[in-house]
Amino acid sequence: QVQLVESGGGTVVSGESLRLSCVVSGDYFRIYAMGWFRQAPGRQRELVAGIGTSGSTKYVDSVKGRFTISRDDNKNTVYLQMTNLKPEDTAVYYCNAGLYETYDPDSYISWGQGTQVTVSP
Fold first, then answer.
1. pLDDT at 121
2. pLDDT for the residue numbered 116
3. 55: left (phi over 0), alpha (psi -120 to 50) or beta
4. What is the pLDDT of residue 1?
5. Chain-centre distance of CA 20, in angstroms?
6. What are the distances in angstroms from CA 53 to CA 12, 23, 26, 108, 114?
7. Going edge to edge, which strands form the sheet with 57-59?
8. Distance from C-alpha of 32 to C-alpha of 95, rounded to nearest angstrom
9. Is the Cβ–Cβ distance between 116 and 92 less than 8 Å?
């Protein structure tokens, strides 16, 4: 079971940027499809962006053109560059690792602590 440590969250004003990082333990990072997810109060956890082992990416419509997911297999790290942040992006952000590029939040066994992103108007 991998350990996931997210960081980089914070409180920003609408229009500003943040870069999230997620470090994954173990020796098999490069075989995982990595996803960034978020959960706002009272809402279900949802996929924000995913990146496969070949670098193929997937984004939820609401972040297309604003967020960019990337990975560094040498550092066991996946990133989420978030620009032009909006108040509706406020949530706890989590990463997770899977063998397939399905990115279904219900398919993961465990989660890290996440990192809080708060965007004020």
1. 95
2. 98
3. left
4. 78
5. 7
6. 31, 16, 16, 18, 22
7. 10-13, 115-120, 91-98, 33-39, 46-51, 57-59
8. 12
9. yes
Question: Distance between CA 73 and CA 15 in Å, rounded?
Answer: 30
Task: Please report, as a single letter, which amino acid is at residue 51.
Answer: I
d(CA 15, CA 33): 29
The residue ranges of the chain whose pLDDT is under 50 are none
Contacts of 44 (CB under 8 A, 6+ apart): 105
Q: Which residues contact 66 (CB under 8 A, 6 or more apart)?
A: 82, 83, 84, 85
Question: How many CB atoms within 10 Å of residue 95?
Answer: 28
Return the pLDDT at 104: 94
Strands (E) in 14-102, as ranges, are 18-24, 33-39, 46-51, 57-59, 67-72, 77-82, 91-98
Q: And the tokens for 53?
A: 């082992």
